[in-house]
Structures are given as C-alpha cells and as structure tokens.
From TrEMBL:
UniProt xrefs under Gene3D superfamilies: EreA-like (biosynthetic domain), EreA-like, domain 2
Listed Pfam families: Erythro_esteras
Protein name as it appears in the record: Erythromycin esterase family protein
Lineage top rank: taxon: Bacteria
GO biological process: response to antibiotic
Biological source species: Cohnella xylanilytica
Length: 421
C-alpha cells in the first residue's frame, strides 16, 4: 500500500520533460533565487552536464546570472575562467584551457560537454565589458600545492611583505614533498602543521581586490581565493586522517565560504549558478547525512539565505557512466543497472519510462513526507554493490525541483585512456 501511495504522489508531481526547451516553468521558479544549485547523480553522466548547461544558458541570457561555481579546484577552473572571458591568447581553444585539469578524476571537467559549454560562454562574453562577463570558478579545496604556486607567481610582482608570508607558508609545507597524506599525518598526529602560516597569508590577501586597479581586480581575487583554498586544504588533509565526517564538513563549509566570497566580489545584486553532486547541493537535513553529523552546501546556504536558494536534483533509471574501480585508477565506461525496486528512480520509471520533471516547491504536505532511496554514484563505482549507492531521501525537502532522465549515457572525456567494458 505504501508503494502505491508513493507512486500516486510522484505521478501527481511529475510532468513529461522532453528537453530543456520545455523548461519555462522550471526557469521561472528558479530565477527568483540568487543561488540556483544544480546537482548530478554522478560525475560521469553526459546528460547531467548538457542539461545543466542548457538551463544555465537560459538563466544567464534571460535573467542575468553572473557566474557559475563548480565542484572543481580554483587554479584549473580559473584558467578556464580566463578563457571564457576572452583573456587567453588568440588561437587557444577551450580544449587547450581544459588541460589544466590534470588532477584525478580529470574527466569531471576535462570533457567534451564542458568544452562545448565553454565555447558558448566565450562567445556570449565576447561583446560584453569586463564587469558584465560571466565567470566560471572552482570552489573546491584539493589544490594545496597548485594554489601555493599560483599565489607566489602572482605576488612576485607585488608587495614584498606579502611574498614573504607566502614563502613562509610554502617553506612550512615543503618538507612533505607535495604529498597531501604525508602532510596530514604530520599535522594530525605529530602537531607539525602549517595552520598559523596559512591563516597569516590569507589575512594579508583578504579583500586586496577592493583596492586593486580594474585590470588587476580579478587577479587579486584569485590570489585570495587560492589562499582560501590552501587554508581549506590544510584543514581538510589534517582532519581527513582522524575524522571522516569532519573532513567532509570542512570541505562543504569551505565551498559555501568560497561561494559567498565570489558573491561579495560580484556585488550585492549578483546571482550565481552552482554545479555540484546531488550530495552537496541537496539539503543534507533531508537525508541520513544529518544523523551522522554531516552538513553540505545546500543546507548551509538554506540556513543562511532561506528563500534565496533553489536546488535542482538530477537522477536516472539506467544507462552508462564514466567512473573508476578504485581511487586513481583508469576511467572506464560502466553500465548503470536499472534502479532498485521501490527507489525514487525505479518508481518514476515504472510510472512511465520517459524523462520527467518534478516541481517540488509546489508539493503537498504528503510529498514533503515522501521518503525514498535515491541513487548517488561517485567517481569510484561498483555497480555490483548497487544497493549501497542509495541515500534515504525526503525528496520534497531535499530539492525544489528534480530532473529525471530515464536513460543516460557516459560523459565524453578529453583524455584518451578511456577503457570500455
């Protein structure tokens, strides 16, 4: 009986979704918010990237959204940001700018889908003054060494005092040979951390963009954001050795803070689009993450911004995906098996095997209490352990809308080491 009731509620909530061209109602609802969060059920599904790109184009063109913030590292995303704003050398292509994504898993951003969107964004920005160009930024924190390199490169032409602070922080990390795990062990277990040096560096660079000349403002912002990434990475690798939950929380709090700094830079009327996994943008309080003491970006923003946040989740019934069998291993095209019986995705498929849109902001109280398993696929994936990939979810409280693509296909990485099953 419970399953029949769930199907009834989902049937009432869902409408056919034949493509982004039929997204008027979704765009109308989302565009009321300053923060539009767009998720994905995996980091390797083409349709999640292309649908987010098309929805983002409409928000940018029709509603003036100023930048996209993604689950990527600041330095590599900043290289792409320079490209889409037309600051890169003549003749360079998006695929050339994407070469900076060399950290595993490279396919998350170095793929054909992102290259196509970057070319569109560059064309869109081509006739805009600098202050109106739409940016593309990374708000994650893994770039400890790369961010240190970028800070020193920038400061070599600036104030010597700030360069000295950067050198002190770099020298503190240097004995660890650019090995994050080695640093984490030394900091967590032996008290040999670099927290003080990093905080001093961030304090010196904080807000410097406000007093910089127009041509240097974004570069000064980049130096501060790199320092923020170094601080976040230092905390993350130190806590990762001891507490899994705490390292997750460090990461999501960092991403929320980085997003707020970008909003501050772009001005009080700025609006942002965020691309991250569903586990980051869907409110953690509507999942079992809350029981484990975990928070995420969606929750943190909703707690602070309330009605200024609109979260769109994505999911699929079956298809193929890019992932790996273990961390650091070669990427593969893997089969995504049909969703398990009784899950959100299986019930939506059972109603009718077509793409659907759920507008959950208009949901009834019954829909708010609708708790179902909801699939989450990581960069490491084992389809044979499928049941463990489902997150218990109060769907109406986790998202404001949900895009269901019945059958999806693997992302198209730029790398050539792709392995087919």
């Amino acid at each position: 009986m419970k399953e029949n009731e769930n199907i009834r509620i989902l049937r009432e909530l869902s409408v056919p979704y034949p493509g982004e061209g039929h997204s008027d109602e979704l765009i109308a609802e989302a565009s009321r918010a300053r923060y539009v969060l767009m998720g994905e059920a995996s980091h390797g599904t083409s349709e999640f990237y292309t649908h987010r790109a098309e929805l983002s184009k409409r928000l940018i063109e029709e509603h003036g959204y100023r930048f996209i913030a993604v689950e990527g590292d600041w330095p590599s995303c900043y290289a792409l940001n320079r490209y889409v704003k037309g600051y890169a050398e003549p003749g360079i292509r998006a695929k050339d700018a994407l070469r900076d994504f060399s950290r595993w898993p490279t396919w998350m951003w170095a793929n054909e889908e992102i290259a196509a969107f970057a070319e569109w964004l560059r064309a869109y920005n081509s006739d805009k003054p600098d202050r109106e160009k739409v940016g593309f930024y990374g708000i994650d924190l893994y770039s400890l060494w790369e961010s240190m390199d970028e800070i020193r490169k920038y400061l070599r032409s600036k104030d010597g005092v700030d360069l000295e602070a950067a050198n002190r922080a770099f020298e503190c990390f240097e004995p660890h040979g650019r090995e994050e795990q080695q640093y984490g062990i030394s900091a967590a277990l032996y008290g040999e951390g670099c927290e003080d040096e990093v905080i001093d560096l961030l304090r010196r660079l904080q807000g410097k963009w406000r007093e910089s000349p127009p041509g240097d403002r974004e570069q000064a912002l980049s130096a501060e954001m790199n320092a923020l990434s170094v601080r976040g990475a230092e905390q993350y690798y130190r806590t990762m050795i001891r507490f899994d939950v705490e390292s997750w929380n460090v990461r999501d709090r960092h991403m929320a803070e980085a997003l707020e700094k970008l909003m501050d830079y772009h001005g009080s009327d700025a609006r942002a689009i965020v691309w991250e996994h569903n586990t980051h943008i869907g409110d953690a309080r509507a999942t079992d993450m809350a029981e484990e003491g975990m928070v995420n970006v969606g929750q943190l923003l909703r707690e602070k911004r309330a009605d200024d946040v609109y979260a769109i989740g994505f999911g699929t019934y079956e298809g193929t995906v890019i992932a790996a069998r273990a961390w650091g291993e070669p990427l593969k095209v893997m089969a995504v098996p049909p969703a398990i019986p009784g899950s959100l995705e299986e019930l939506l498929h059972r109603i009718e095997p077509v793409d659907k849109l759920l507008l959950l902001g208009q949901a009834s109280p019954a829909a708010d209490s609708l708790q179902l398993g909801h699939r989450a696929i990581g960069v490491v994936y084992h389809p044979e352990r499928e049941r463990g990939n489902y997150v218990p979810t109060l769907i109406g409280k986790r998202y404001d809308a949900f895009v269901f693509i019945d059958r999806t296909h693997a992302l198209s990485p730029l790398a050539t080491e792709l392995v087919h099953p």
